[in-house]
Amino acid sequence: LQCLACGRNFTQSNAYSTHMRSCRPQRKRMASALELAKETYKRKKFRTALNPPEQEQLSQLNLSPAEPPVEVSFVSDDMEAEISISLAERRPRRENRRLPLRYRVEPPVQLPGLPPSSVVDPVASVSSIPIPISSESHQVQLPTRQILKSQRNVFGLFRQYFAVSFPSHDPDSEVQLSDVSHSPSDDDKAEPLPTKLFQPYPNKNAFLLGEWYWNGGLQKSKEDFKTLTNIICDQSFVPADIRDVPWDSVNERLGESADSEDMWLDQPDAGWKETAITLSIPFPKNASNPGLQLYTFPPFRHRSIVSVLKEKMTNTQDFPHFHLEPYELRWRRRDILTPESIRVHGELYTSPAFLEAHEEIQALPAEPGCSLPRVMVGLMFGSDSTHLTSFGNASLWPCYMYFGNESKYRRCKPNCNLCNHMAYFQKIPPGFKDFTALHCGGKGPSEAFMTHCQREFFHAQWRELLDDDFLAAYEHGVVIECCDGIKRRFYLRIFAYSADYPEKVLLSSIRNMGNCPCPRCLIPKNSAHLLGTKDDRKQRRSLARVDDRHYKAKILGARKLIYQNNRTVDSIMVQRLLKPESLVPTENAFSKKLSGFGFNLFSIFLVDFMHEFELGVWKKIFIHLLRILECVHGSTDQLNQRFRDMPTFGRDSIRRFTNSVSELKKLGARDYENLLQCSIPVFEGLLPEPHNTDVLNVLYVLAHWHALAKLRQHTDLSLVVLDGITTQLGELLRNFQEETCADYDTRELSRETAARVRQTAGKPTSNKKNLGHVVDAVGSSSETPIAALNLNTYKDHSLGDYVESIRQYGTVDSYSTEAASPMELEHRSPKSRYLRTSRKHFEKQLGHIERRQARIRRIRQRLNGNGKIRSVLIHEKAPDPSASTYHIGKTQNHPIDLGAIARRAEGDFAAKDFTKKLKEHLLPRILKKLKINEDSLGSGDTSMEQLAQKWIVVKSDRIFQHKLAHFYHTTYDVRRSEDVINPRTAHCDVMLLADLEPNGTSHSDMTATHPFLYGRVIGIYHVNVVYVGQGMKSYEAMRFDLLQIRWFQVEISDLQDRHLSEWASLRLNRLSFPSMAFKDSFGFLDPSLVLRGCHLIPMFSSGKRHPSGTGFSGMAKDGNDWRGYYVNRFADRDMAMRYHWGLGIGHTYS
């Protein structure tokens, strides 16, 4: 084998392959060929855009079916890239053969690109709808808008716009399946760059070092060390460039506030401001100095929302991904013949709320003399106080802002830097108590008074954020020239505010845990347990909170009593006015500033999945189940043992549990999620009947609701399912409370008692010895209090709002505060920046560091746009695009002799007939690869099994073992995911599609046949074989990858047999190993047929098959086998959707 680029010769193929990946002449050759192909494709695409085919124009006008042919394969890039490559280097071609539809797993693809806006003629549109023009804007003639539909991709997804024409700005076209890594060219004679590009750095090398220090991460890793060495070892690095650099002044210039007119180095910049806030503090009649007293709080650091928007629109890296025109994302299923499509819910910019606001803005009266395009900007806020260190009391209360016009998948990536730090909220300073004590006559202020002052101070800070520029942009829009050179008028709208319940109470100006605890409606707390009932659904609509005159009149009357009549904030007269609706006497900043524009402040407080369910309802149910187990001797120890024996799954889907789960030590939301996902087999059999069945039913529906509510992509069909599960959950929870919980005398857990004692006695939590004495004293002096299950809480009530919230605003991952949400991930930034401050007045220093890092990124973008300097930062490697289905290594370092396996066959069932089964498995694959029709083989009386033994020769009588196999699959939300299978660990189980149509059975008949097969991988191999039978073409060995499988058999339970659907039985699928003596217990499997890995949980209640730990097969390692297993369909969201047949958009086989 010879490398044509450098001329080197190789005798082994693996050495040749290794060299080809590292050969610099070859890489340069490939890079030039790729660039040539790209230029050719761009010219061809441009010509096609100017002169589209007639059939394409008709399809874009929706005058002919837009379904793309199934067999279409775009290969122009590869074909044109090979023009400059020799014939020896070109990739061998094969026919575009495709699996049957039921076995097909399509890789993720982006939405089809939009046609040029000139293609669609508004007059000729069959669905044009004129816009009503206001009388005030008669001088401006608005064009006719219409419904426009894009083409569908392979998954049946398409976009539907209501616009004059297709938008020319298409952020979805920027979505890439993988980032292509281009090798840098060796340009030793690069031209010097002008120093103004690096300002305020004096030269390139100074900038690279500054970028490495500030934006390369606080804790330097090996990759950071390599980056530094790349900088100083570069041929253009000159030590004199950094010798006399005034680093302190450069850093100060980078972090300073913006110059006049919000500009920094002639570019829009959203710098930080400091505002001193002065409030009138109302002291009641019984104070020594009654009346209003002024108090000035410490400076409040914040940024301008409009300035942040201007900075965003001039950001060349973010603007291509910013959606200027919203659309409906719709889905047309393959198994439905009707032309009706289904709405898809996910992103905020495709939600009905966003589209309605966009239509309202388009219908606004035109500004005088303005005909610029109107763009609606969706703002999403979030705030949450966080500790900056593990020890100490340093904390920060940041306010984050995201743009809903950007994809949630990019917002949750910290490397995209899409989170905008808008403000660092201040709490009431310690000196405020001295001020109040002075005017109260030495008597300290009441708790209600301090709470009222904190509310007033918080909303005063928000009034500064909602400044005059924001109000002008909200009403009239703000004109901004974007980085593409086009001027547009942007209108601001607020859609969501993510916060936990205490902060929602503060923001919505309602009473904490009052009689009406919900910030969205006025349903009383004693009706929260009616979740899912018809009355509950009606009341959520009829009793919705509205920022109307009635609400404002109550607030104004209460404030008059406090600020003019000098009444206390918790006086009887004030309570009589506000308590029925759980209001507080605070003038809400959102109401004061935006209610005049029709804004309802209560509509932005959406559901919070982490606090309301994972750390709310489910945590409460789990703790009460522990209380019930305390009533049954030994059950708690069994529960801990079962959780310890729980196998893990995925990279981090199901993690290892602690040794004693019942102690609830250091458990976060992620841990409670895993507890729910694995709880059904753990709790099975711990309680007597009928309570065991009731508990399993509740756990199953809780896990089902959790899986559906947390989906990242919903459709109208899946929301109907979630709505029904919500009703079922409410019924089961009430039944569980009335029947199971009533039969047990549940008491506080020891951990709950200790927490209560600490709270009442004020004991420190870190002193374990003193804590033990306190708990023992309490336990000996009094009986442990009764602890009952309470379903009348806000968190129980909030579960009924999820369906409507998803339907109106998109899926919950956009606005939840969970650990993987953008807001929670962003907490890492201020924590890392805090370590670079002096710890004194750190809010100001944090603002400087934020600006410094942002401006360095802007310099980098300017240099990337210049095209003459590349980033030396190490980026995450993209997955190999060629591994579309699976990947098994190429090494042959672990050969296994077939004769050695045959000698083990007498005492090992897994080794019995190993070679025979291997050849029988390989024959159909060989015939398929060689395109030999099995029916054309003149075998006579000889069976195919016999022919396999004669026609297949295993090279050197050896197979080669591998430790890992990587399987790639498309998830329900059309994303790419990976499962790693390792036969030596618990991650060794796989699932694949069963043959559902042996006799032409319809796909819709999924109730009679289980759709999947399950197997345990006991070996990963590849084999080199030579085919010497009929139709042979050469004696060249062919490589085949294969898995040795021990098959499971699916057991149908009595409940599943009585129900039409597996979901209706409320039971997991049960599996078991057939007898090893059975002929088909072991076999081989083509890795390409594997769907993905699966999570199997032992049936703990049935026990192990071999209590002694000694099995029958060394290859199968069956010594630790259990009598049965449960298929955990709740292991992750994609797994749950695979059992909702036909609802997963990415699951094309269904």
How would you sum up this structure, described in words?
The protein has about 1150 residues and is of the alpha+beta class. The protein contains 37 helices and 33 strands. Among the domains are: about 1-95, no CATH class; about 510-600, no CATH class; about 610-745 and about 785-805; about 885-1140, no CATH class. The strands form 8 sheets. The protein has a 7-stranded mixed beta sheet with strand order 6-9-16-15-12-18-17, with helices on both faces. A hairpin with a 5-residue loop joins strand 17 and strand 18 (about 485-500). It is globular. It starts with 12 loop residues before the first helix and ends in an 11-residue tail after the last helix. The model is unreliable at about 50-100, about 120-140, about 180-190, about 775-780, about 870-880 and about 995-1010 (pLDDT under 50). InterPro entries: Plavaka, Znf_C2H2_type. This is C2H2-type domain-containing protein. GO terms for molecular function: zinc ion binding. Keywords: Metal-binding, Zinc, Zinc-finger.
What radius of gyration results from the CA coordinates? 33 Å
Helical/strand content category: alpha+beta
- State mean pLDDT (0 to 100 scale): 83
Major beta sheet summary: 7 strands, mixed
Q: Report the strand count.
A: 33
> pLDDT below 50 for ≥5 consecutive residues: which ranges?
49-98, 118-140, 178-191, 777-781, 871-879, 996-1008
Looking at how many chains there are and whether they match, the oligomeric state comes to single chain
Cα shape: globular
* Widest sheet, order of strands: 6-9-16-15-12-18-17
Percent of residues in β-strands: 5-15%
Percent of residues in helices comes to: 25-40%
How many helices? The count is 37
